[in-house]
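Weekly structure sync, notes
Attendees: PL (lead), two postdocs, one rotation student
Agenda item 3: pending single-chain targets
PL asked that the sequence for the first pending target be pasted directly into the notes so everyone works from the same version. It is reproduced below exactly as submitted, 202 residues in total.
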Amino acid sequence: MSTQPVSVYTAVREILVADGTLTTDEIVTRAKARGVTKPDAVIRKVVNKTKSEMKLRSQKNKKAGRKLIQPLFPSPHTVARDVLAADPDLPSAVALSLIKARGVSRSDSEILEAIRKTRGVVRQKAKAVPAAARETTAPAPETLTEQAVFTGLALVNKTAHLCGGVAKAREIAEAIRSCGGIDTFLKRLELIAEILNSDTDL
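Predicted structure, written out during the meeting:
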């Protein structure tokens, strides 16, 4: 039985959809690895034509107000803005890992530059928020009952046990304080979980 030849158009389109940042030479190599037997010149012509068609379709969707579920070529600036919006002071190395985990395939230097520029914009927006809006009124101190005190002590004791001892629990408490509070700590914990999950998938 003769093997059905691989369509150069199908192969090129699938490769571009998976990663639109590849160079023409890389696409040619991957297409041939998939079984395309056409000459390099023919594959290059198909690559250029397919790129133009996909770009035109993207522009039409944008003009029509249609949003794609997931961009074909994630922009490092767009993803950096999403990552830094949760924590503008996130270390660049952590932000870099998160951005790459979300599908951005640009070079590290390009992504770091996007992080630098985006961080400045995010911080400026944060400063523009009126100070009064950022201030929170401290809750009035409550009179703790004896039962509440014992309940709190029991909870702390359980936490220390789960952490592996009082010393470990104290380290975690200091980490939370260093982050600026429990909310910031939890946000950064979610980011770490996202990185670890991404590494596991790899």
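Discussion points:
- The chain has a mean pLDDT of 77.
- The chain has three domains: 8-63, 76-129, 144-201.
Action: rotation student to compare against the earlier draft before next sync.
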